[in-house]
Amino acid sequence: MKSLTVFTPSYNRAYLLPQLYSSLCNQSSQDFIWLIVDDGSTDNSQELIKGWMTEDKIQIQYVYQENQGMHGAHNAAYANIKSEFNVCIDSDDFMPDNAVEIILRECENLDEKYAGILGLDANKNGEIIGTGIPESLTAVKLNELYSLHKIKGDKKIVYRTEIVKKYPKYPLYEKERFVPLDYLYLLIDQDYHLKPVNKILCIVEYQADGSSMNIFKQYRNHPNGFAFSRVSRIKYAKTFEERFKNAIHLVSSSFFANKLSWLFKSDKPLLVFTAVPFGILLNVYIRYKTKS
Q: Which CATH class is domain 4-208?
């Protein structure tokens, strides 16, 4: 069995997948399997991937499901992963030639307090996305990295598979296709640390059709998914500023979902009540930014 699963949720990304496939074929260590979760693609993704499987250059596992969104694809990935470690590389990203080698070396003899390792994302020019991780940190929780240490930019997480499987799946909401992935990461944060690795594990390219570039539309189109996420963010926030910001977003999402019952699901009801006027203003602002 391979030591690492590189999993990729994909929806109509046949035009981007060859870049990732090429980078995986070039890895200095081939001790991995590439798991592709096809989230209901209608392009030629299946034909393309099955062609690569016939080439047999790397080990590929292909899973198809009806469209559920990124979080649903993550659910499917975790259900199918059997390797000791796993990392998500999105369909519009790729890996440096030595990334798998670095991951396996850093994960070797990993202390039990660690759920995995935390590495860096970079752009095609080799510039780190956001900021690096302070060298003084030998163990960190993901949320603390941003809220307490003020680190910026996406980072790449490699998790132990047995740990990820202990936690609940992402919920699915009718007519919605997005739940923020940090729900799971927050739960893991409560029990484990991550080992910081100041090395580039992923080359990132943000696409015009990606979620990062359409965040206001995401807020409006997937309100229940975001409200669910805000409840957990309020509960596990490390600072008052973080809690209050998420309370404002919870109010806004509740109005978009026409489901004010979300306001009573937080363990900080007074904070949420105080945030109502600001949440209404945010809701109006998002409506303005996303009007046709």
A: alpha beta
Global pTM? Answer: 0.94
Contacts of 285 (CB under 8 A, 6+ apart): none
Q: What was the pLDDT predicted at 209?
A: 54
State the Cα–Cα distance between residues 258 and 45, nearest whole angstrom: 36
**What is the mean predicted confidence (pLDDT) over 13-32?**
98
CA distance 136 to 43: 47
- Name the residue ranges covered by the structural domains of the chain: 4-208, 214-289
User: What was the pLDDT predicted at 213?
Assistant: 52
pLDDT at 99: 98
Alpha carbons 81 and 120: distance in angstroms, whole number: 23
Residue 267: partners with Cβ closer than 8 Å, 6 or more residues away: 234, 235
pLDDT of residue 211: 54
| Contact between 120 and 102 (Cβ < 8 Å) | no
Tokens of 223: 């309100």
Kindly tell me if the per-residue pLDDT of 291 is higher than 90. no
